[in-house]
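About this split. The held-out portion is used to measure sequence recovery: a designer receives only the structure tokens and must propose an amino acid at every position. Recovery is the fraction of positions where the proposal matches the reference. Here is one held-out target exactly as it appears in the evaluation file.
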């Protein structure tokens, strides 16, 4: 059987847990045929280290952005995001979006305004967005529409919403990225999405060092485990792992405009 090649659309190689063993993790990525991976930024203070990592490896790419939960670090401006976003190996803006988890009653205007700045930068740069959406579905989709994010498109990272929400996101020119959650026994909603969306709209990710798929659940996650995500989607769709891996790799290449 031919070897299977993979793309991990979302990982954090410079996060604690992976950064200490980064060389070994990258060696395993090569060994396990991870042909592309996106090393995602969640605060501006970590960008330089992220960019240093991706600059040393042709198959790695970077993003720039501030996670919606980040509150104690530098704030983004459209100008700053664009200055960094113009760099050659920066292929996306984010991780950005809205996260209302455990924030009931709080004034989150600051979070929504930060999100809008990221969208404006992405449109100016003509680069896609990486969207984090947690318990904020309607506001996220509303702001994406209001800010004309359809012009740049992007990906709904670590998607856990319904099939109907996934279709609404696709209508806004967004891909749907499936993480190791799809392997969890009670993740019926994610499994339904993975089984029923057009393959042209799907990508796969690890979100490592978080959300390790079965059989690694509860342990440190790393990009090489993306094969388990592909394996589960293959079973759900009754399509070969080679097919799922190949299509999601192609979708990733188109997403980052890789040759």
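Reference sequence for scoring:
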């Amino acid at each position: 059987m031919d070897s299977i090649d993979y793309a991990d659309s979302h990982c954090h190689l410079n996060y604690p847990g992976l950064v200490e063993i980064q060389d070994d993790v990258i060696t395993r990525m090569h060994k396990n045929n991870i042909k592309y991976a996106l090393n995602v930024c969640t605060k501006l203070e970590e960008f330089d280290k992220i960019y240093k990592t991706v600059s040393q490896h042709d198959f790695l790419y970077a993003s720039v952005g501030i996670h919606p939960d980040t509150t104690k670090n530098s704030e983004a401006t459209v100008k700053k995001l664009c200055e960094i976003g113009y760099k050659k190996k920066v292929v996306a803006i984010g991780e950005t979006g809205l996260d209302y988890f455990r924030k009931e009653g709080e004034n989150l205007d600051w979070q929504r305004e930060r999100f809008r700045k990221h969208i404006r930068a992405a449109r100016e740069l003509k680069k896609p967005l990486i969207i984090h959406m947690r318990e904020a579905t309607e506001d996220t989709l509303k702001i994406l529409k209001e800010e004309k994010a359809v012009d740049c498109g992007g990906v709904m990272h670590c998607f856990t919403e319904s099939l109907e929400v996934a279709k609404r996101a696709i209508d806004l020119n967004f891909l749907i990225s499936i993480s190791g959650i799809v392997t969890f026994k009670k993740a019926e909603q994610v499994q339904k999405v993975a089984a029923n969306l057009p393959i042209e709209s799907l990508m796969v990710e690890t979100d490592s060092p978080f959300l390790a798929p079965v059989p690694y659940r509860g342990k440190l996650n790393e990009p090489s485990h993306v094969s388990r995500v592909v394996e589960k989607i293959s079973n759900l769709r009754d399509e070969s792992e080679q097919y799922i891996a190949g299509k999601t790799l192609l979708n990733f290449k188109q997403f980052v405009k890789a040759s």
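Annotator remark: The domain at 6-256 is CATH 3.20.20.140 (TIM Barrel).
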